[in-house]
Each structure stands twice: as C-alpha cells, then as structure tokens.
Amino acid sequence: MKIFTIPNKSNSPKRSRAAEWGRKCLAALFWLALWQVLYLAVQQEILIVSPVRAFGRLLELAGEAEFWITAFSSMLRIVSGFLLGVVAGTLLAALTSVSRLLYDVFHPMISIVKATPVASFILLALVWIESPYVPVFTAFLMVLPVVWGNVSNGIAKTDRNLLQMAEVYQFGIAKTIRRIYLPSIMPYFTAACTTGMGLAWKAGVAAEVLANTKRSIGGNIYNAKIYIETADLFAWTAVVIVISVLLEKLMMRLMKTVGKKYNLS
Amino acid sequence: MKIFTIPNKSNSPKRSRAAEWGRKCLAALFWLALWQVLYLAVQQEILIVSPVRAFGRLLELAGEAEFWITAFSSMLRIVSGFLLGVVAGTLLAALTSVSRLLYDVFHPMISIVKATPVASFILLALVWIESPYVPVFTAFLMVLPVVWGNVSNGIAKTDRNLLQMAEVYQFGIAKTIRRIYLPSIMPYFTAACTTGMGLAWKAGVAAEVLANTKRSIGGNIYNAKIYIETADLFAWTAVVIVISVLLEKLMMRLMKTVGKKYNLS
Amino acid sequence: MKLTIQDACKSYEGRPVLEQLCLALPGKGTVCLFGPSGCGKTTLFNCIAGLEKLDSGAILGMEGRRVAYMFQEDRLLPWINARENVEVVLRHADEKQAQKWLEAVGLGEDGDKRPSELSGGMRQRVALARALAFGGDVILLDEPFRALDPKTRLRMEALVQEHSREALKLLVTHDREEAQFLADQILYLEGPPLRIVRREFPSDRRNDA
Amino acid sequence: MKLTIQDACKSYEGRPVLEQLCLALPGKGTVCLFGPSGCGKTTLFNCIAGLEKLDSGAILGMEGRRVAYMFQEDRLLPWINARENVEVVLRHADEKQAQKWLEAVGLGEDGDKRPSELSGGMRQRVALARALAFGGDVILLDEPFRALDPKTRLRMEALVQEHSREALKLLVTHDREEAQFLADQILYLEGPPLRIVRREFPSDRRNDA
Amino acid sequence: GSQTEETASQAPESTPASSSEASEEPSSTPAEKITINIAAQKGPTGLGMVKLMQDSEDGSTANTYNVTIASSPDAAVSMISSGEADVAALPTNTAAILYNKTSGNVQLAALNTLGVLYVVTNGEEVNSIEDLRGKTVYSSGQGATPEYAVNYILSENGMEPGTDVTVEYKADHSELAASILSGDAKIAVLPEPFVTQVTTKDPNVKVALNLTDEWDKVAGDKSVLTMGCLAVRKDFVEQNKEAFDAFLEEYKASVDFTNSHVEEAAELSEKYDIMPAAVAAKAIPNCNIVYMDGDEMKQKMPDFLNILYTANPKSVGGELPGEDFYYTK
Ligand SMILES: Nc1ncnc2c1ncn2[C@@H]1O[C@H](COP(=O)(O)OP(=O)(O)OP(=O)(O)O)[C@@H](O)[C@H]1O
Ligand SMILES: Nc1ncnc2c1ncn2[C@@H]1O[C@H](COP(=O)(O)OP(=O)(O)OP(=O)(O)O)[C@@H](O)[C@H]1O
Ligand SMILES: [Mg+2]
Ligand SMILES: [Mg+2]
Q: Which PANTHER family match (chains C, D) (predicted)?
C-alpha cells in the first residue's frame, strides 16, 4: 500500500541516538577514506596532504594561543557580516514586499550586488572601508541577496486566507507579522541562513586575503599558499569548515528553540 | 477596514504597462543619479568614472566583434556551471530527502562545498580541471548548495495531506513527483535559481581571473584593473550585470511559461 | 443601524456572482441564508466583511462596526494551539477568557492541541469559538454547524442564539429546521448571480420580537 | 471479502482513539457511521486506508483491494483545475471520463476552474467525483454531503447509492434520515476511544437484500 | 585644483589644504615633524622598509612615517589615488599608468626592487639562455611584466618565443610552483618568494638563471629590469620637498640595512607582519632590493618602459611618461 512518501526526518523521535551517531561517524569515515584515496592517487605532498598530516598540523596549531585569537577574530568579522546581511536582507525584503515602488528601486540594486564580482568594486570600496572591515562587508554583500530572495519569496507565499482572517479579526500590523508572516517566512528564512552562513565564510575568508587582514584565517590560508605549506592550507581550511558547520548547527538549534518558544513553527 | 495586507504583485494585471515602465525607468534614473553624485563626490577618474564615460566605453566596446565573442564565451561557461549546479543540486536534494543515510553522507560534503574558500581548492582543482573549466566548476560549486538547500526545504515542506491523498489514489512515483512535489518545490526552486544565477556570475568571473581564462570577461576586468582602465572596469562590470539580469529575466519567463504549461503553479 | 446593500455588482472573470443586488437587513437579530451550493453566499459575506471589493454599488451601514466572520474553511493558525487561536482575536490577551469560549463549544480539554491534532468538527468549533469571542456588531457565520453530530449541533445552535442579541447575525445553513429554529428572517437564495427568491419571517419568532 | 478489524489500538500522544476495537464489516453494501465529533471516525478511516499505522491489532481483508477515500477536507491539488483533479486519479488519463464525473456531481461547467475559484460545496463535490471516479473495492466517504443544500444533497445521495454496488461503502454522516435512507447497516459510535454502541439494519433495505 | 582640495580633506594631517595655504605656513621648518603616509606591500618592497618602520616607531627619524602594509597593488593604488597615502610602493609599470591617469600627479621617486624573476629547473641542466632553445619553459604572469621580460630577453638572444622556445603560461604562481615541485614542469620562470619556497622544499630544484642579470647582459647600461618602485604624489612632494628628501635618505639607509643585516631585518619583517623571519632571511638576498634614484633611474627607466610599451601600450598607461615623471631631489 505504501508507495512513495519521502520520509519525514522530524517524525522519528524514537530512533535511537546511538544509531544516529553511528551513521554520522560512518559518513565522516567515508569522506576521510575518500580523502585518503585521493591522497594516495595524487601522491604529491604539495597538492594534497593525508588526513593524518592535516589533523596533526591542526592539533599543533591548536596548541598555540595565536591560533585561537586568529580563528576567533575571523569568526567575529564573518559573523558580523553575516548578521548584518541577515538583518538588512530581511528588512529590505519587508520593504520591497510592501511597496511596489521600493521593489522597483531596490531590485536592480540587489541584482547588481548579487552579480558584481568583488574585483570590480574592491578598489572603490577600499577608499571608504578600512581593511579589517572588508571581510565584514564582503560577507554582508554575499548574504544580503540570499536572505532577501528567500524572505521575499516567503512573504509572497504567505497564505492569503490567513491574511484575510487577520484583517477581519483586526490583528493590526504587529500581530499580523508576529502571528502570520513570521511563522510563514520561517522555513524560507532558515534555508537562507544555513546557505548564507556557508557563503559568508567562503566570501569572508577570500576577502581577508584581498584585504590582507591581520590575524585572519584568510591571511593564514594565503600564506600557506605562497609558502606552499600544504599541510597548513588543509589545516586552516579544516578550521573554516569546522567553525562554519558548528555555527550552522548552533544557529539551527537557536532558531528551533526560539521558534518553539514563540510558536513560530 | 483595510489594515495590513502586503500587496500581491501578480494580482494587478490591469495596471497599465506604461506606468510599469515609467516606474522602472525612474528606478534606473535614481541609481544612475546616485552613481553620478558618487562620482562627483569622489572626483577621481582612477577610482570611479561617470556613468556617461562608462556607457560611452561600453558602446565603443560593443562595436568590436571581439567583445561579443568574449561576452558570449564567458556566458557559455557560467551558464554551463549554473545549469550543472541546478541539476546536481536538485538531484542531490531528492536523494538526501529520500534516504536519511544519504543525507548524513552528503550533508557534511555540502557544508564543505559551501564554506571552503575557492583559494583553498583551486590549486588542487587545477590539477584535474583545465583552465577554461575552472569558471564552470566554480559557478557549479556556488550554485549547488543554494539549490540543494532550497529544494530540500521545499521537499520537506510539501503538504503531507496531499501526499497522503496521492498514496491513497495510487499515484505512483512519477505522478506524485509530477503532480505534488514539483509544484510544491517550484517557489523554492525559483528563488534558488534567481539567487544562484547572480552568485554564479560573481564567482564565475572571479574564477576567470584566477584561472587566467582566455577571452573572458574576468580576464578583461582583471586587465582593466592592472592597467587601471577604470572606464573599462565599469564597462565590463556593466556587461556582467546586464547579462546576469537579462538571463535572470529570461529564466523567470521560461519558468513561468513552463510552469503554466505543465500546471506547476 | 441597518445594513443596506445597494446595487452590488461583483464578477469573477466576467461571470457575475452579484448583479445589481439590493438587500436591506435589520440592525440586529438573526438572518439565515438558504441557497444552493455555488450561488454566491460566501462571496456576499466576503464583500460585507470588506475582504472583496465590489465592482460597483455600495454596502451602507458598516462604518465603525466590528465584523466577526467564521469562514467556510476553518482558517485556524496551524502553528498555535486551539486556545491561542481563540486568544489571538481578543483585544486584550486573556487565556481564561479563551478557555471559557473553548468550554462553551465543548472543547475545554482540547485547548492545548494544535489544529492538525484536532478532528474536523473540533476545528470547526474552534473557529466558531473564535468568531463568538471576537464579538462584533455584525457576525457572519458561513455554515457554522456543517460537520457536527446532531447533539453537538443543538448545543452550538443554542450558543449562537444566546450570543450577542444586540448584534446582527448572518448565518448560512442548509438545514431548513435549523433555519426555522434560529432565524428572525430567512432569505431563500438562487444563483449565480445571487438573487433573493423569497423572504420568510418564521412567525413564532416574529411574535417574540 | 469481509473486512475485519481485530483488536485495533491507536493512540495519539498517549490518548487512545482506537482501543481494542473489533469490528466485522460485510464485503459490499453501504455502512453508515454515526457518531459525535472527535470520537475517532476519521482516525478509523485513516487506518483502514493504510495512512496511519495501528499501534497493535490488525485490519484483515484489505489485501489487493483498491481503496477510494474522500477525505474530510477536500485535499484537491490547488495547481490544477477541477477536471484535472478528477482525471489525475484515473488509471488512464481520460478527459471525457473526468468530465462525465464532474457532470454527475453537477459541475459540468466548472471543470476549468481551479479549487481556489470554486465555492466550498463545489470543492467538496469535486472531491466526491474524484473518489467515485477512482472506483475501488472499498470506498471511504468522510461526510461527503456536509456543506450541500438539500436539493444537491439528494442528488449526491442518489449518485452514491447507485455507484459501485459491488463495493463496500463506508460513509460518515451526521444526518439520521440520510443514514436511514442510504445504509444497509448503521453503526452508532461513541468515543474516544471509539466504541460501537449500537448496530442498526434499516429494515426496508434489509428486505431488499 | 579641486582634486587637490578633495584629497586633502581626506588626509588633512598630511597635506595642507591648498597651495596658497601652504605658502602662508611653510612646511619646511625642520623642527616640525611631518607625518608621511606610506603604503608598502607584503613582498620585497616592504622588506626594504622595516628599518624605517622601526626607527619611526622609536622616534629617531626626521619625519613620522605611518606605514601601512597593503595586501595588493589594488589597495596601494586606492590609497595613493584617494590621498590616503602620500607615498606608495607600486609595481613600476603601475606607477607609469598612474602618472598617465592622474595627468602627472604621480611621480617616480625611486626604484626599490629590481627583477625578482628566476629560471628554476628540476632535473634539467640550464646554464645560459641559449640552453633554453627547443625546450618548454613554464611561466606565470601572462600579460604582465614577466611575459614581457621573458620575451625581451629571448628575442635579444636571437630566439623567437613560441617557435624556438615554447612558453607555457600557468594561471597562478602557486600552481606553477606546484608543477615544478611535482616535476610536471622541468623549467620554470618563477618570482620570489616562490623561488625560495621551491628550492627549500626540494633540493633537486635549482636556480639556474637570474633574469635580472640576463637582462643586464643584453641591455647593458641602457635599461634595467625593475619590478617595484616608490611613487609619490606630486602635490604632496611640492609642498614637502625637504621632508620628502629626508625620507628618501632614510629609506636608502633602511634598504642598505636590510641588505647588510639580513638576520635583523628578517626579525623586523616578522614583527611588522610582512613575512615570517625564517622565510624573510632566505628571501632577502634573492629579492634584489635596491635603492636607485635621480639620474641613474632617469637614465635606465625610459628604455625599460619603452620595452613594456612596445609589448603592450596599456601596460604603461597608453603612452610613455614625460620628463616630469622622474622626481629629482
Ligand atoms: N476567486 C474566485 N475566482 C473565480 N470564481 C470564483 C471565485 N470565488 C468564487 N467564485 C465563483 O463564484 C460563485 C459563487 O461562489 P461562492 O463561494 O460565493 O458560493 P457559495 O454560495 O458560498 O457556495 P457554497 O455553499 O458551495 O459554499 C461560484 O460559481 C464560484 O465558482
Ligand atoms: N494527529 C493527531 N494528533 C493528536 N491527536 C489527534 C490526531 N488526530 C486526531 N486526534 C485526536 O483523535 C480524536 C479523534 O479524531 P478524529 O479525527 O478521528 O475524530 P472524528 O470522529 O473524525 O471527528 P469529526 O466528526 O469531528 O471529524 C480527537 O480527539 C482528536 O483530537
Ligand atoms: Mg460558500
Ligand atoms: Mg473526522
């Protein structure tokens, strides 16, 4: 009788935690094995190091205070840019959804922000923006259109029936936003945030290279490249990935908690 | 009585086309004026040129056959990467939604693709990928996680009631996808495509610089930068933006037509 | 204040649903609408509630009057529970008040369930509780008792009858007995376009008034 | 083939809706279910249709039998029109067949409208047309006539009665007369947890059989 | 006129607001320390400046030097054209471009880096340019000075690039470095600090030729292969000539210090976040850090620029700079 239903992930609270972890570890092992295979295939320490080397180097780095300061200050910059992008993207989406005129005004602007290569405006940007803020700015510009697109879409897809209900029962602006728009936008917003967090890291670290930011992960990756320290390159890349994944997890958990608390889903 | 309803854009077919165009032109004028003001404020031809100069240069360039070949081959590369990313992202989303195991396997992979700075893997990538394909690959990697995230989300949010209906009425896999999943995913997919198209251009052009691709917009932007031909820089950037916006428009229209034809929305 | 519908016209894609409709309704009391499926009852309600704009004509006597509208579908907010769904329409959030209304519709124990965890009839009663809790000077009820068993139905009918006697209650029903029991006035409708084929004033209630 | 429900248990968050329910139903004919709102009728239907899994117990006699299920909500696909909504359940897509079914429920002229352009009662009739068009050996109808005016209702009742006499039709209704008119067997229910308080075999129909 | 005012308002502490104002309060009082904003870069140009930075920090210099390490020529260009910096270390051809683009407001003060291009080999014996005949040479920097330099040297040695020698261009210095280490490329033209990197990583990789020397061999006294220079804003230097001349002296001393006290300079390089000390110590001898100004510069530059100009006019900004491009003390 069962023909085709995509399993609902959230619907299986009884699945044992152990099995969950087991599967996750398996997945990790799978990718590590692939890495090792790749390493053995390439056999060039300059291009690719073995997972063992990379983790060894990572542990070494983790022993230094400097490492933590660097990682933390890069994180601070990129998260700031990310948050700014999320806030601005959401506000802009609200504005452009309310007014057709504002939409017409901002839409080309956002298209430009989306498509313009960083190389094109960095020269101009460097006049106003000081070097440590370039990564912030770049992450911001990366996240903004993603959030804007998703939130706008979420607003457009909000159930008109519920909006009519809110109108009849005189919810007013605040209650309509709180009770209808927010919960409707949540899934779109969440998707934008998870995607945006990754992109913010990608772009933010690249911008740290461009702006030669002191004490930055980007700077370290750049140095690793110039000095052909491949183990360092992989170790610092791993740092980027680990922080980004952890932050994403943290953010999702936070959103879930807030969502539950305020009945947003 | 009307309190707060966000106006439905698609709901006003009677609004005169002239007014629509008028507003769009006004928006364009607004941004051009802002550009001019900025230009007058900076007063440095090296950093920023006037809109008139940029368009003059653009017209000049447009007179050369080389220009069209360059623009076209860049477009081809980036659109290929974009399409690959869309296809792969959609397939991957389908896979990871069907099987929890595949989800656990691919999720970390996608997080890595999202966050890894291009600088980190370009060295490795260049070993296998020939220079002209680097922009394709980069655009692909940019679009993949955006599409994956949105489509996964769309699948997860598909109405369970309708899925139950499909099960009872023995739709089978094909019909369930065609009649329920596809239409449900459409808005998420569309948002991913518009966002992704812009990002593909941003990243693709940057990669053309990195990979030193011949006959590329990226190469021209790079040259304009090292030779400090600011008018060229702005003209080529305008090319990127115009093509990206046109492609986005084209894509949206295509999706609407297809969506209408196959009743997807 | 009387509610007057003057030359109301409304069409969807060229097909008229309301066409030069004129209708005068009293300031208070219960009016039952009785008409075939698709004749335009819901459309009329939407116009009275201000959710749809008339193509031409006017609806007079609605200024400053609060409208409570129980829709034909339940239109509950899926992300909050039954009690909150009632509470959300109260001017001053008040959980006890909401609970009171839930009890009135026989759902005192189901306040913590979300709409997806309620049965069809229960959802409908939450929507009824919400409309009654909002109060209002004009109360529009689109088939409020449709999916209820006879016993519950009687209780709900009584509840609606007792409620806000000073308000104008418009009520769509497909049950002739029910109309006779509840209404001061019954409008027999045909359509589309909507027209009133007969008005009836159930005598016993008229004498009361 | 008989349909047998054996010791069926099903609870939501610890609250039992079906508890040790045993029920034997004939292989064909019309059985009306008659019970208060929230007693567990829809849950029972969902279990029979295989959409919900029993916590324990079994439902026997369903192997290989096609089930048509008209849900309590309409569950129409919002992105296709009424005709396509019927066509989509046919084994071989056939527009004429779909149109025929729409005409049977009195919607011959509304086939091109999308669900959002239909009135409540019309949507419901599309859902009925869909269930009947699918056919099936077991037909579950959850309040198929709820929001219909008396005239339309009579037509629909007749339609259901005429339809697939070889199938087992289970039908939830809140109208005693309707049950008497349609059913070979009436189950009076209470709940939750669901229990059968009385079985009635409307005599005239029994004599027919 | 207006341009001066504009930039001055962005950097008021370094530049008097206008020339009229400047004449009212002459800046040449030796007692008063002037702040000179300098944009250096991570590579060799920065290395030559470390002593200057140290001294300025100690307060033992004639002026106060506010050195910013810019990551890329981009940032330096941005800084000098917006007036944020008065002096900037730039690629030599970029200085020429800026001169053209600013109608002469950027002057060449001194050359500070000669060529840092080397031919390195992995498993091939190369002792002279002639040995390259018939071989495949890998290089990076297509469309930039490395390409023009390689082509010039090859042609002057009677070889046609592309026919007598195959030159394959890689996109990126790191990629080229990786190829030579992996042995995919046997002969490569690499810049510092990549040369130091590859030779340290793999003892089989040898520095075969120094392209600066090869250039000198064919060009004699007429021109010099130069990669980096110090450019100055004309409107700044006109008003602060004395201070700037003092700076050049001190900068010259700083370059000498770097070349003669490699270890100490390397320490300072790490301190000022230019390069790790170990790397700097190895790189300094190969970086061709020099100080060349005045007549020598004026004599050798035009030919060099002309070679670039012949290869691609855009690489010097469309036309060869005039006399006033060269700053004289
Ligand atoms: N949004 C719409 N677009 C097009 N047609 C519509 C729309 N809404 C309603 N209609 C049409 O208007 C007519 C009246 O609809 P309405 O919902 O008012 O009927 P009703 O009297 O409430 O019927 P029911 O008792 O079945 O609910 C119907 O023929 C319907 O198809
Ligand atoms: N998904 C669910 N989660 C929790 N409780 C549920 C869920 N579905 C149904 N219930 C509960 O099960 C009981 C029976 O629900 P059911 O829908 O079967 O009633 P019903 O007999 O169909 O009522 P109605 O005539 O109102 O449709 C109700 O008390 C309801 O609250
Ligand atoms: Mg209706
Ligand atoms: Mg039910």
A: BICARBONATE TRANSPORT ATP-BINDING PROTEIN CMPC (PTHR42781:SF8), SPERMIDINE/PUTRESCINE IMPORT ATP-BINDING PROTEIN POTA (PTHR42781)
